[in-house]
Specification:
With 260 residues, the chain is of the alpha/beta class. It has a single domain, classed as 3-Layer(aba) Sandwich (Rossmann fold). Helices cover 32% and strands 16% of the residues. The chain is built from eight helices and ten strands. The strands form two sheets. Strands 1-10-9-6-2-3-5 form a seven-stranded parallel sheet, sandwiched between helices. Helix 1 crosses helix 2. The longest helix is centred in the N-terminal third of the chain and has 18 residues. It is globular and about 50 Å long. The N and C termini lie close together (11 Å). The mean pLDDT is 97. The chain binds fructose -6-phosphate (F6R). Fructose -6-phosphate (F6R) binds next to loops. It holds the Pfam family Glucosamine_iso.
């Protein structure tokens, strides 16, 4: 894995937005996989700023969702569909038709999961998948002990994740117990996987994912299997990496034009 240590969240956002912009310059119809939660917001802001500044044209871009709560009513402001439309699709000036996601309100959830997994492949596959990381090492909502070969399916959130996400709701009781998430095997099919981690609360998860053994207990460690995985961590999230200095030196020696 390539590990890039940046001073802060804004720098991480800028670096990843530039990678997305470079991708869209060479492949205008690229399919960008987006995550929700707080971490990726600086990426979306930086990419929108590039669009407004005329540095990149995104009108052909397609956006796909990583995961979704099950059971929130359609249009709920915290459904991930609403969040992605609000934070990504609208600021980039894209039409809703450029966006695909799983149906969290489906009557037949397993069928909706399988249909979404198929739709990603039929769309040509994800070109760049942006991920955050849970304090328990989850990616998407693949909680610890998820199969490393899993496909899009329904999962039950851990109490830790429900507590972590309670800040988006009026109370923890409103946080759904179930989600649809791209599986780890699904995520690993993206051509480039970029995980952004910011803040001290992610430091243990980052160290285990990057330097720990490959383990279903730390789902993000599955990215060790990906031929092009980039971990972007701010100083706080990188603070427990044993090889931090090595990662800094390696990235500093990389030609600037190469990006991530
Ligand atoms: C969200 C997602 C989750 C989050 C993770 C971190 O779509 O897939 O894996 O990325 O829970 O959330 P934040 O960024 O809010 O700390």
């Amino acid at each position: 894995m390539e590990v890039v240590i940046v001073p802060d969240a804004a720098a991480g956002g800028e670096l990843i937005a530039e990678a997305m912009a470079a991708l869209l310059r060479r492949k205008p119809e690229a399919l960008l996989g987006v995550a929700t939660g707080s971490t990726p917001l600086p990426v979306y802001r930086a990419l929108s700023a590039k669009v407004r500044a005329g540095e990149v044209e995104v009108s052909g871009a397609r956006i796909c969702q990583l995961d979704e709560y099950v059971g929130l009513p359609a249009g709920h402001p915290e459904s991930y569909r609403s969040v992605v439309l609000r934070e990504v699709v609208e600021p980039l000036g894209l039409a809703e038709s450029a966006f695909m996601g799983p149906d969290g309100a489906a009557e037949d959830v397993p069928a909706a999961c399988a249909a979404y997994d198929r739709a990603l492949t039929e769309a040509g596959g994800v070109d760049l998948q942006l991920l955050g990381i849970g304090t328990d090492g989850h990616i998407g909502f693949n909680e610890p002990c998820s199969s490393l070969a899993s496909r899009t399916r329904i999962k039950t959130l851990t109490e830790q994740t429900r507590k972590d996400n309670a800040r988006f709701f009026d109370s923890i009781d409103q946080v759904p117990h179930h989600v649809i998430t791209q599986g780890i095997g699904t995520i690993l099919e993206a051509r480039h996987v970029v995980l952004l981690a910011t803040g001290e609360s992610k430091a243990d998860a980052v160290a285990l994912a990057v330097e720990g053994p490959l383990s279903a207990l730390v789902p993000a460690s599955a990215l060790q299997l990906h031929p092009h995985a980039t971990i972007v961590a701010d100083e706080a999230a990188a603070s427990r990496l044993k090889l931090g200095d090595y990662f800094r030196a390696t990235y500093a020696a990389k030609p600037a034009w190469q990006g991530i």
